[in-house]
Amino acid sequence: MTKIYRLLLLGISFILLVSLGYFIRQDFSFLIDDFWFTSGLLLLILLSLIDQPHFSKDTNVFVNAVTAAISLLLVKSENRDFLFWTFLSFIIYLTVSSYILMWLRQNPLNQERKGIQFFSRLNRQLGRPEAIFSAFFLWGGIRQFGITSNEFNILLWFWIIFMILNIPTLAKTIEGIFIKMKETNNQEAIGQIFGVQSKNTFLVKLSEDRTQTTRIFDFVEFKYSIDNKIKKGLILDVYLLNQEQWVKVLTTQEIERIFSNKVLLTSHTPDFVYKITEIPETDYLERLIGLITENSTIEKIKFIYNSKASITEGQLLELTVRNERVLYQVVEGMTRIELLENKNQTGLIIVEAIQLGTWNNETLRFEQFGWVPSINTPVYLATNIDDVPLEQSEYIIGNIPGTNYPVILNKEVAITHHTAILGVTGSGKSVFTRNLIRQVVNETTKVIVIDLTGEYKAKIEDIQPIISEDNANKAFESIELIAAEERKFPNQRDYDLIKAQEEVIKTEFYNSIKIFLEGEPNEAIFELPDISNNSGIIEYTKWFFWVLFKTAKTKQSFGKRVCVVLEEAHTIVPELNSMGVSDFASKATVNSIAQIALQGRKYNIGFFVIAQRTANVSKTVLTQCNSIIVFQEFDKTSSDFLSNYLGWEFIKVLPTLKFRQAIAVGKAFKSNVPMIFEVPNLDT
């Protein structure tokens, strides 16, 4: 029963009851003196139609009982018969029991104890206005006019008609006839607006007699009675409530522009909705993704996915906030059940997206936007941008999935401020790194690959060892001689021999490094000599890094920028906690490399740290990496470490990243927020 119907019934009932009273009494004294009129008008009509049209709560029952008790005071003492005292006893019971129930009730009724449920439901039936005041109304008429009088028969017929018209199913039928009459001259109307969720979203009850089929993503037109404007809209959802079909209609300026802001229909009944049958060619339905929902924040939005278009993790989206085009990236999706009226439910997909910001075409970066979108703001797939110009030091390592928005890396900053490239085997990081090496090498930048696996030598054509075989053998012979001396007791060692052999090592490494830095090849690989002495290998590696850093400090690397690639970094710079207590040689090597990581940027030398897991890599080295590129990761240790760079919203994405997808963040990138991006399909 709608509000309009109840108000109409109230007005008609009031006029009819007053008219009947005047007809019976031939004056208006009944307005004050007669108990039947007080019960009929002030209680039966007002309480059943206005205060409690649907049901009565414990508090309503208490108020009804108190009001009924007061109305009984109008009965004169000579008319207080057996029925009067019966009514009074009944009213006292309702008053006391409903008052006690108000004290006892702490939970929803279906969660209360059985006794409380029983008496509460009993009182709600007995204490309804229709029950209490119908009895008062009829008893008052009988007491005053007699049960066989014409006056009582007139009041009885009034009561019968009123109660029939108050039946919800009959009221619904009458309303349907009324609406159908309004639609007589508007057969194309599919429904009527009955609610507004926000300034751009309307709830429409569909007409049962509509001749046109109605589907999600149909376009409609209507005249809204509040602002008297004609609007275009799009049906986004269909609900079934109380065996009636309802739809949600979205209105936006973008929808108006589809139809060139023209009025399509010649006449409109206010708040009636009409289906548009001729739709211009548009990609709007392929771009619309959903509507903003509750609990969105400045940094992260939540929206209801409702679209023909499919989206995936990492998808770039856009929406308008305060006339600014703000971009977000999808990081999570979840299902949710939404409760409607009368235990009806509907299933939803809720999507979460992190703000990247507004795109600045001049600086080619995302800039953070400082406000949250309104509820029901439309969310769209991001549109592409024009090709961007790059500076000489910049390189596009990939694009945000599904778009041409570039992820731009500053090659110089990536080297001098160190970059970590992390990910499990098979995620695409090695191919990505080899391609990145090709991009950073030039006349002023040299790359030294520390690869103990031999993978790079097989994949990169013509790459040569930085240490020649002859120099490597001489250096290792000196390392062996030093090791032999250090195995002696301190008082038996030949320190002059040790010092001389150290000079040989420095000279052999320095000469090889100098030739590489001053020569034509821009890439070289650091290989280990073909030996089985593990401690000798560690010393060999330590001395190489010591000489490399010394050359950078004293000779400024002969005017070159040096990029050292640590492939399988856990084998070269392992975490100190994972080493044995007596593994002093390995710790010395890690310290040599850590010194470069800490001070290298001052001398134009930097690292690309490549690793599968962060757990076994020196944190001293990793924490000096100002830029991070993360491919798929699973282990918790890596997640805990990376959360300092990415935040937990992106950490949750890591296990589900696709092949060749990664997250980039740090000083070397144009934007200062993490971004999911897709690496181009590379050959090697």
Automatic annotation (TrEMBL):
Statement: the UniProt record of this protein carries the keyword Transferase: no
Domain Helicase HerA central, first and last residues per copy: 397-459
Segments traversing the membrane: 7-24, 30-49, 83-104, 154-171
Presence of the UniProt keyword Transmembrane helix in the record: yes
PANTHER family referenced in this protein's UniProt entry, alphabetically: HELICASE MJ1565-RELATED
Source superkingdom: Bacteria
SUPFAM superfamilies in alphabetical order: P-loop containing nucleoside triphosphate hydrolases (SSF52540)
Name of the protein: Helicase HerA central domain-containing protein
Pfam hit, one: DUF87
InterPro entries assigned: HerA-like (IPR008571), HerA_central (IPR002789), P-loop_NTPase (IPR027417)
Record keywords: Membrane, Transmembrane, Transmembrane helix
